[in-house]
């Protein structure tokens, strides 16, 4: 038997006893009703403290002005409050679960209860005070509550009816009272599971990982940074470990639709990297390392990713081209969210560019761009995934403020919004005006339309149109260029019947403006000798010969000059595939052409001058951020030399056509004007000029002028 004294039972030292203190019925829960309500109270003490009793003391006073105040820390006494205040039990700090006793009660609801009677029975060894035999009264009167919880088993309800009827309960016991567990769960021990306590592993806050918390605050639930085995580890609050809850059936508990969910009740599922993003990142890396062109790198990279779907291949191409065309703006955006931009590795930056492009220019959801971005960085640099997670989340927030100003009020903001270098935007505005320059930049960011040229040497236009129609795409003929058609649905280019047309040389892909220049270069009169300067891969060669067949019923003898031997070999093979046998490739420096060819020996000369290519940036995304103002002036000087040398090859009465695919006056009209101011240039008169304007759904921006040698 233990000691008794008036005012309540005090347990053994260190166990906490009752002593008027809160009973502990579970893992740190206060005794009494839910939310800190007291189930009873202490009778008023009107005697004196026994002599020699050092376990605490009574602070006397008038009835109702004070209560029993425990003494030593392990005395377990009831702290009723300061003397004279007479505060009810539970009016102090919030309890363990965060509930307070100052909430509203119904009228007549007492915070106290019936007083405890003096304890005369045996004491239990369990912590939390006295626990007598089942069915016996505890501290006098029968308790008014038993099972903690509401009718539906939810946490935080009022006391239900008493659970035990005096008989010993041998059924399954609940040892985890969290609200995401149910009574009908079953626990199956795994072969490798040892039910031993392990050191505590911190567990992430539910507020950061729960889908409900995510929907509440309008942001997706981030994936845990560190995974841990929740079956064997206690969290830092001392609660029991989570066990593997395998429920009968396919539905997992804790999800309304029966599927897996994050937060409580389910493990986070690993994020799978999209093959399209992986391919796009690899394309970007190769383009950066080799200073290559996206159109040349993309096919080989896509072929390496075996099993990639056509949709993922198209997505990879779109991402790769978009990242390349907006490169400088993406880097500026990434650097805004880095403390030390110079420390980031190149391959990590390649991966971040993919996510940045999705956030700024594709309008992708932040959670998709962030999750995929982290996995993309992990695939190229695993140790940088933590940095990527932090940076990408900052980027997703910063993207909402892009372009950081009003484009209508600031040219710098306008250039940023259209992903153009500032100097480029200024030059366009000075030459075109603000409105036309803005339209040009916007059109340069649009997807380029697909035009095809029908080869009259091998195909009939009506038959080609029928093949495309059967494949699922209508063809819109050009109003000004014969044999030119706009393909309404470019997806048909992958159809076998359409691919066969390209393989047998019936059609080729070429912009409407390029086809117009080829038609302009082919003169009205019969041609015995044609000179092409800057042949490249031979597209203009094929187009000029197609126009010759339409006009003269035959191909014309042609010399095609380029300064790279491999291009001459490629041109010869391609011309043969299109049924052209009258072309002779020549490798030479066209600025010294008179050393290779006799002067005044050609009826028509076409100078397809190498230029900045500013009019074709939506097809060649590398141009925008590689081009410099100095290069434009250098190109203009080369173009003048080519035009002046080509003019020597023209017979009197023959034609000279000068063409570029740029919009800068320094490479177009200024080159022609400079040539015509020379003594030899005075012999040429301008017959026709083409200057197409770039539009979102139309042709590229090209420039061409045809001159005739009059003497």
Detailed description of the structure:
With 711 residues, the chain is an alpha/beta fold. The protein has five domains: 1-42 and 70-135, no CATH class; 275-401, NusB-like (N-utilizing Substance Protein B Homolog, Chain A, Orthogonal Bundle); 411-444, no CATH class; 449-509, Sun protein, domain 3 (Alpha-Beta Plaits), CATH 3.30.70; 511-709, Vaccinia Virus protein VP39 (Rossmann fold). Helices cover 32% and strands 10% of the residues. It is built from 20 helices and 15 strands. It has helices at residues 206-209, 211-217, 275-290, 294-304, 310-325, 327-336, 346-362, 366-380, 385-398, 411-417, 422-432, 434-444, 461-471, 496-503, 512-521, 539-552, 565-577, 623-626, 629-647, 669-676, and strands spanning 40-41, 56-58, 68-70, 114-115, 450-454, 475-477, 484-487, 507-509, 530-533, 558-562, 583-587, 602-608, 650-660, 684-691, 703-709. Helix 17 (565-577) links the parallel strand 10 and strand 11 (583-587). Helix 4 (294-304) runs antiparallel to helix 5 (310-325). It is globular, with a radius of gyration of 42 Å.
């Amino acid at each position: 038997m233990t000691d008794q004294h008036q005012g309540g039972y005090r347990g053994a030292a260190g166990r906490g006893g009752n002593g008027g203190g809160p009973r502990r019925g579970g893992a740190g829960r206060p005794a009494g009703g839910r939310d800190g309500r007291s189930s009873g109270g202490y009778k008023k003490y009107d005697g004196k403290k026994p002599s020699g009793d050092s376990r605490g003391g009574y602070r006397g006073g008038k009835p109702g002005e004070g209560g029993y105040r425990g003494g030593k820390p392990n005395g377990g006494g009831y702290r009723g409050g300061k003397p004279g205040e007479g505060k009810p039990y539970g009016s102090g700090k919030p309890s363990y679960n965060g509930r307070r006793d100052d909430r509203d009660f119904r009228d007549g609801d007492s915070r106290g209860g019936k007083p405890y009677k003096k304890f005369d029975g045996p004491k239990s060894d369990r912590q939390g005070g006295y626990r007598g035999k089942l069915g016996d009264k505890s501290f006098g009167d029968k308790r008014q509550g038993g099972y903690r919880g509401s009718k539906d088993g939810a946490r935080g309800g009022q006391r239900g009816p008493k659970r035990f009827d005096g008989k010993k309960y041998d059924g399954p016991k609940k040892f985890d009272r969290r609200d995401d567990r149910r009574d009908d769960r079953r626990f199956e021990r795994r072969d490798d599971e040892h039910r031993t306590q392990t050191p505590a592993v911190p567990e992430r806050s539910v507020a950061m990982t729960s889908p409900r918390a995510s929907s509440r605050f309008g942001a997706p639930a981030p994936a845990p940074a560190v995974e841990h085995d929740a079956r064997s580890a206690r969290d830092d609050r001392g609660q029991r470990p989570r066990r593997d809850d395998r429920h009968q059936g396919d539905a997992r508990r804790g999800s309304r639709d029966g599927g897996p969910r994050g937060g409580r009740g389910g493990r986070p599922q690993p994020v799978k990297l999209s093959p399209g993003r992986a391919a796009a990142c690899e394309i970007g890396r190769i383009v950066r390392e080799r200073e290559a062109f996206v159109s040349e790198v993309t096919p080989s990279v896509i072929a390496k990713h075996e099993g990639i779907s056509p949709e993922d291949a198209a997505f990879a191409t779109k991402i790769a081209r978009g990242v390349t065309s907006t490169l400088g703006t993406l880097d500026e955006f990434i650097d805004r969210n880095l403390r030390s931009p110079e420390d980031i590795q190149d391959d990590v930056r390649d991966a971040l560019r993919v996510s940045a492009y999705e956030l700024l220019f594709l309008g992708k959801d932040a959670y998709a761009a962030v999750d995929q971005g982290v996995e993309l960085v992990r695939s190229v640099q695993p140790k940088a995934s933590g940095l990527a997670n932090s940076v990408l989340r900052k980027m997703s927030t910063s993207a909402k403020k892009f372009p950081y100003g009003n484009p209508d009020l600031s040219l710098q903001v306008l250039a940023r919004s259209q992903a153009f270098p500032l100097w480029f935007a200024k030059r366009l505005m000075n030459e075109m005006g603000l409105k036309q320059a803005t339209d040009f930049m916007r059109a340069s960011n649009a997807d380029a339309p697909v035009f095809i040229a029908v080869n009259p040497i091998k195909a009939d236009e009506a038959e080609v149109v029928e093949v495309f129609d059967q494949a699922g795409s209508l063809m819109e003929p050009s109003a000004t260029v014969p044999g030119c058609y706009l393909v309404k649905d470019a997806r048909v280019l992958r159809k076998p019947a359409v691919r066969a047309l390209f393989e047998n040389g019936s059609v080729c892909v070429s912009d409407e403006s390029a086809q117009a220049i080829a038609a302009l270069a082919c003169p009205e009169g019969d041609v015995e000798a044609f000179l092409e300067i800057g042949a490249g891969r031979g597209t203009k060669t094929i187009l000029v010969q197609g126009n010759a067949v339409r006009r003269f019923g035959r191909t014309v003898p042609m010399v095609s000059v380029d300064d790279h031997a491999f291009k001459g070999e490629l041109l010869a093979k391609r011309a043969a595939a299109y049924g052209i046998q009258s072309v002779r490739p020549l490798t030479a420096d066209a600025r010294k052409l008179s050393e290779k060819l006799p002067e005044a020996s050609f009826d028509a000369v076409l100078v397809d001058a190498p230029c900045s290519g500013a009019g074709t940036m939506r097809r060649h995304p590398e141009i925008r951020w590689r081009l410099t103002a100095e290069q434009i002036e250098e190109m203009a000087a080369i173009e003048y030399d080519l035009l002046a040398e080509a003019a020597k090859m023209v017979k009197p009465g023959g034609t000279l056509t000068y063409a570029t695919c740029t919009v800068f006056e320094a490479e177009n009209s200024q080159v022609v004007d400079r040539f015509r101011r020379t003594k030899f240039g005075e012999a040429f008169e301008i017959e026709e000029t083409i200057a197409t304007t770039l539009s979102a759904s139309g042709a590229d921006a090209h420039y061409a002028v045809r001159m005739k040698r009059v003497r």
